[in-house]
Write a structure and sequence with these properties.
With about 220 residues, this protein is α+β, with helices and mostly antiparallel strands. The protein is about 35% helix and about 25% strand. Strands 1-2-3-4 form a four-stranded antiparallel β-sheet, sandwiched between helices. Strands 5-7-6 form a three-stranded antiparallel β-sheet, covered by helices on one side. A two-stranded antiparallel sheet has the order 8-9. α1 (about 10-20) packs across α3 (about 35-45).
């Protein structure tokens, strides 16, 4: 099970090591000295930024970092997204890295972060994520976690060696079944449209049987 906690000052050395990993450095492009890590992550730790830095752990062992905020908390970022796609009020955005390579935790980490986001921000209608088009591993992990590509276009690159081409993904808050507590994850095609929302597969089958039981005998 993946757990989350805020980044603490004691994590800065660990973050510096993760940011120096070649697969991470290619896309995050951060300086990794203790002074640079404190400069980049200290303001959020002190509550000076309207965002969160979170450590992901499995069995008590940290393996990754996520950043999370409302899109409109940063006007420049909001303008960049808005130039490419609709940005609903309260929409969230995330960024993430796996600092311990070779563990296959990218997609599970994103799924866990999404579940935590729906819980912590109950009014957030969706999560929107922009990824450098060349970062194939990242956007494939988003797709496996249920996000859908909704736009492509130019955004300020995180690494100057990139051309700014980005792909934009979105996932809406999961909708519950109108007849039971089941929750629809992503764009699950096994769900069907109900009268006021969605029906899970089990309730869909029951609904169909209810309809069939009311049909006149000449339909059989």
């Amino acid at each position: 099970m993946i757990t989350w906690r805020p980044v603490a000052a004691d994590d800065f050395l660990l973050l510096g090591r993760w940011l120096a990993e070649p697969a991470v450095a290619r896309w995050w492009n951060h300086e990794t000295s203790p002074e640079a890590v404190e400069r980049d992550f200290g303001p959020t730790l002190r509550g000076e930024e309207p965002s969160e830095d979170l450590i992901a752990s499995v069995d008590g062992r940290p393996f990754g970092l996520a950043q999370r905020c409302r899109v409109d908390a940063y006007p420049d970022e909001h303008a960049g997204f808005a130039a490419l796609t609709d940005v609903p009020d309260g929409a969230m955005t995330i960024d993430y890295l796996v600092g311990e390579p070779g563990r296959g935790l990218g997609t599970p980490m994103i799924r866990s972060l999404l579940a935590d986001t729906w819980r912590v921000f109950p009014d957030a209608p969706c999560v929107i994520v922009a990824v450098a088009a060349g970062n194939v591993a990242s956007w494939r992990a988003l797709e496996k976690a249920g996000l859908v590509r909704i736009a492509e276009g130019h955004l300020e690159p995180g690494n100057p060696v990139d051309d700014g081409r980005h792909v934009v993904y979105r996932i809406d808050r999961p909708q519950g079944c109108e007849r039971c507590p089941a929750v629809r994850e992503g764009a699950d095609p096994t769900w069907s449209r109900g009268t006021d929302g969605w029906l899970c597969p089990a309730c869909t089958r029951r609904h169909v049987r209810d309809i069939e039981s009311k049909l006149a005998s000449e339909w059989w």
